[in-house]
Amino acid sequence: MSTAPRREVLEKLTPVLTKRWLSPEAWRLDVYEQLDGYAALRKALAAHPDDLIQLIKDSGLRGRGGAGFPTGLKWGFIPQNDGKPHYLVVNADEGEPGTCKDLPLMTHDPHSLIEGVIIASYAIRANRAYIYIRGEAVNAARRLRNAVDEAYKAGYLGTNILGSGLDLDVVVHSGAGAYICGEETALLDSLEGFRGQPRLRPPFPATHGLYASPTVVNNVGTIASVPYIVLGGAAWWKTMGTEKSAGPMIYSLSGRINNPGQYECGLGVTLRELIELAGGMQPGHNLKFWTPGGSSTPLLTAEHMDVPLDFESVAAAGSILGTTATQLFSDQDCPVYATYKWLEFYHHESCGKCTPCREGNFWMVRVYRRILSGEGTFEDLDTLLDTCDNILGRSFCGLGDGATSPVTSSLQYFKQDYLDYIEGRTPPKLSAKQLVGAH
Amino acid sequence: MTVQYSDDLRAKAKEIVARYPADRSRSALLPLLHLVQAEEGHVSPAGVEFCAEVLGITKAQVGAVATFYTMYKRRPTADWLVSVCTNTMCNVLGGQEVYDRLTEHLGVGHEETTADGSITLEHAECLAACDYGPVMTVNYEFFDKVDADGAVGLVEKLRGGERPMPSRGARLCTLKEMAVQLAGFADDRPEGVADGVAGEPTLRGVRLAQEHGISVPGFDPETPIKAQEAK
Question: Both A345 and A257 in a single domain?
Fold first, then answer.
C-alpha cells in the first residue's frame, strides 16, 4: 500500500524545472510565454555576457549530466576575442541506465531548453548551437524541433534576436543509437559525422571542441536551469541544495517503490526521504541495493539510506551522484544478475577504441554467464576484480570506469550472493547452454 | 551499382547539408543515413554510395559510420520495429519475459523480421523510461508497463493492420516515415506534435508539490543581474 509522505518530507520538493510539466500545452510557444517564458532571455540580453558567466558562477550551478563540473567555470574557459567561432552543444543523449529526466523535460517544456541555449550562447559568444538528442527519443525530438521552428518564427532565433544584435542558429541533431555518444568528446566526433569515439584530453573542448573550436558541452538539465537563475538570481538558486551542491535536481526513481517517477528536490535529499515521497517500498519488498545515479555509479545498500544525495556526500560514501537516476532493487532481486545485465550493456555499448574496455567487458560478461549458470569458480571472483583493475582508469573515457562500478560494488557488498551461485545454494539463473568459452 | 534516387531525396539531402557550416558538411552524415534508411528501410550499399556522393567522401568512410550505430539497420526491416528493453531495471520488472515470449510467439530473434515481413524484433538497452518499466517501443514510441500477454496482443494488432495508440507520444507511423523525422524533418502530421500527454510517473513529484501547496519561496524575477566593475 502506498503511504502518504509526512509534511517535513514533502517540503524537500523543489518544483522549479518540472513546474511547467503540469501545464499540458507548455510545449507551445504561446503557453510557454504566458508562464514566464522568454522573460529570462530579455533580461539576459540586457546584461553583459561576462556578467551572465559570473552569475552562473555565483549560483554554484554544476553540470547535471553526471560529472557535476561547475558550469560557470566551464563557460569561463572559453577564450574570448580569439577570432574563432564558438559553439554550444547540448548533450541530450540521455541513456545512462536508470536515467529518465531529460526526455520528459524536452517533451513537456522544450522552450525552457531553447531559452537556456540562447542565453548560454550569448554568454559564451556562440552563433551556432547544436542539440544532440538521442536517436530513440523521437517524441522529445519532435517537440524540440517544433519549438525551434516556433522560436525562429517569433524572432528568438535567427539574426539580431530581439534587436540585441545576437545571431544564433540552433540545429536539433538526432543520434543513431550509441550510448557512448553521451560522452562529450565522443558526442563531438559523432556530431562531426564520425563514429562516436572519445578523444584524448587535453586539449579540452573549451579550446578544441567541435570543429577544433572553443565549445561548451552541457547537459539538458544544466542549460534548462539557466533561465531560472537569470530570473531568480544566484542567491535564490542557492536557497536550494547544499553549499557545494546548489540548486534543485530531478531525481528519477524507478524499481521497487510504490510510485516510481520524477521527483525534483534540493540536492542533498536522502534516499529514505525519496522513498517516502514515492509512497514507500512495494509490499513484500525490502530495499537491498540501489544506484544513486545510474548503473555507472557504484551500488549502495540499505545502510546508505541517510546519505545526503549531493556530489560530496555520495562521493564520501564511496559512490558517485551521477545523473541522480535512483534505481531501487529489493531482496527479491539478485545483485549478481543485475550486474550481469549491466555488463551486457557495457559490452554492447563499448565503442571498441580502448582495449581494456572492449576486451574487459567482453570477458566479464562471459564470466558472469558462467557464474549465473552454476559453473562459476572461486577464481572467477578474483578474475572479475583483476579485470576491473585493468579497466578502471585505463581507457580514454568513463564508459570503462562505469562498467567496473556495479562489479566491484556488488562484490564488495554482496559477495555471498556470488558464492551462493558458485557453491550451488542458488539455482542457476541461466542455462549452461549459453556458456561459450569462458574458461 | 547505379544509385537512382529521386530529385526529392536529393533536395532533402541538400537541405540537411545546409544545416551545418559550409566546410563541415560531414556533420550531415548521421541525418543523411537516417534519410537513406527512410527510402529502403535499411542502409543498403546504394544508400551508402548516395551519402558518399553527397558528401564527397568514400564509401568506406560512410560504411564505417553506418555500422557503428545500432539504429542503422543493415538488413531490410519491417514497417514495425518492436524493441523491448532488457536492461537491468526493465529486465527484473518483467522485460525479459516480454522479450522471450515475443521471440517465441513471432519465431524470430534479435534484429530478425517475421516471415510475413510485418515485424522486426530487437531487444534494446535502457530506453530512458525506467519509471514506466517494463517498457517496449514500436518505431521508438513507448508502450509502458507491458507484460508478456499485452506484448503479444500488441504485435497481433500490428500484424492485423491496426495502429494501437502508444502510451505516450504520437500515434504510430511506419519506420520509414520515422526515419524522415530522424533525419531532422518536421513530423508532417498536424496531430503528431500535439499527441501525447505526460504520464503519471513523470508528473508524480510536481503533482505532489502542487497538491500540498509546496513551492520554492523567494523567487523574484526582477532580481537584478550584478554588473561587474568595468575591466
Answer: no
Using the Cβ of B127 and the Cβ atoms of chain A, whether some distance falls under 8 Å is answered with yes
CB pairs under 8 A between A and B: 281
Q: Which three cell numbers stand for residue A176?
A: 543513431
Q: What is the predicted ipTM?
A: 0.97
Give the Cβ contact number of residue A191 at 10 Å: 28
| Intervals of chain A under pLDDT 70 | 432-439
Q: Does A10 touch chain B (CB under 8 A)?
A: yes
Query: Cβ contact (<8 Å) for A108 and B89?
Result: no
Q: Which residue has the cell 559512490?
A: A319
Q: Which three cell numbers stand for residue A127?
A: 552563433
The CATH number covering residue A187 comes to: 3.40.50.11540
Residue A7 lies in a domain: no
Q: What is the rounded distance in angstroms from the CA atom of residue A392 to the CA atom of residue A15?
A: 37
A93 touches A132 (CB < 8 A): yes
By CB atoms closer than 10 A (0-12, 13-18, 19+), residue B98 is buried
C-alpha cell at A353: 577504441
Q: Which amino acid type is present at position A340?
A: Y
Sign of the CA dihedral with A187 first, then A190, A196, and A197 last: negative
Q: Which domains does chain B have, with CATH numbers?
A: 7-68 (1.10.10), 80-174 (3.40.30.10)
CATH of the domain at A258: 3.10.20.600
Cut 0.90: pTM above it: yes
Listed by number, the residues of chain B in 189-218 with a beta carbon closer than 8 Å to a beta carbon of chain A are: 192-193, 196-198, 200-210, 212, 214-218
Contact A139 B170 (CB under 8 A): yes
- Interface check for A33 against chain B (CB to CB < 8 A): the answer is no
- Which structural domain, as residue segments, surrounds residue A114? 17-237
Q: How far apart are CA B32 and CA B29, in angstroms?
A: 5
Whichever domain contains A349, its CATH number is: 1.20.1440.230
Give a yes or no: residue A4 inside a domain: no
Say whether both A198 and A278 belong to one domain: no
Per-residue CA distances from B126 to A180, A248, A311, B136 (Å) = 13, 25, 24, 10
- The secondary structure of A10-29 as a DSSP string is HTTB--STTGGGGSTTTTSH
Ramachandran category for residue A264: left, alpha or beta (phi over 0 → left; psi -120 to 50 → alpha): beta
Q: pLDDT per residue over B84-96, tens digit each?
A: 999 999 999 999 9
Residues A356 and A369 in one domain: yes
Pairing of strands A128-133, A87-92: parallel
Q: Cis ω on the peptide bond leading into residue A49 (within 30° of 0)?
A: no
* pLDDT, tens digit, 9 for 90 and up, residues B109-146: 999 999 999 999 999 999 999 999 999 999 999 999 99
Nearest-CA distance from B211 to chain A in Å?
Answer: 10
